[in-house]
Fold:
Amino acid sequence: MTESTRRDHAPIGIIGGTALADLAALEAVETHTDIETAWGAPSGPLVRGHLAGRAICFVMRHGPGHKLAPHRINYRANIQALADAGCRQVIAIAAVGGITDAMHAGRIVIPDQIIDYSWGRAHSFYDDEKGGLLDHIDFTEPYAATLSKALVEAASELNLDPAAGGVHGVTQGPRLETAAEIDRMARDGCDIIGMTGMPEAALAREAGLDYACCAVVVNKAAGRSGGAAIHAEIEATLAQGMADIERLLVALTPRLA
Ligand code: HPA
Structure:
């Protein structure tokens, strides 16, 4: 039995995105580089460790060196690896674009809804007999309310002024969008836009995991930046966003049951 399983039988899963390539505050206990799930290998090593005294399992969504494009990520393997590691709760970190005015660069957002514009991704465990008996999961509320509430509370305590709720539009990428696409998404009701929120959230639900998203806005979406170059805005925002997310995770993890 490893130290992490002795101290805590249900580690918290953390999926790091562009806004969180690694976790400096994580005391790594073990790094598993050779994980193979029923759905293939996850994006990168699974790091087991402790964050603020809680056992966690950390996986980098885009893999080491940020090489995996959103449509090439094996979302099933990432979720399965966390489930196999004993996680019951998963916090998904994401860097996103801001569509509505309130979603300015640097804003922490805990979305409560999703619109999925992605396509062609392996989006379900019910693909073959490995997935077991078909269940049409209820996805009315795509995120786990208790986890999302804990994220909002921890962020508020740190005076990070989080947006509690918002519609997360998920596009295929890897290109950024056209201004007309963003106008359409705004008409649809999207507040923020990212490329990796789906099928990850739905797979977590299929796997029976509580899953919440903690997003940080790193740029204004295409056509909404007032002429500012998107990449320059992302560069300028990412480091502070990562630092805020890390502080938030340190404040969050001890709160989780
Ligand atoms: N669009 C899509 N995904 C993103 C963006 C964006 O503007 N910023 C960060 N992820």
About this structure: Residues 1-7 have pLDDT under 50 and may be disordered. The chain is about 25% helix and 25% strand. The domain at 3-126+133-255 is CATH 3.40.50.1580 (Rossmann fold). Helices lie at 3-7, 75-84, 145-157, 179-188, 200-206, 230-252.
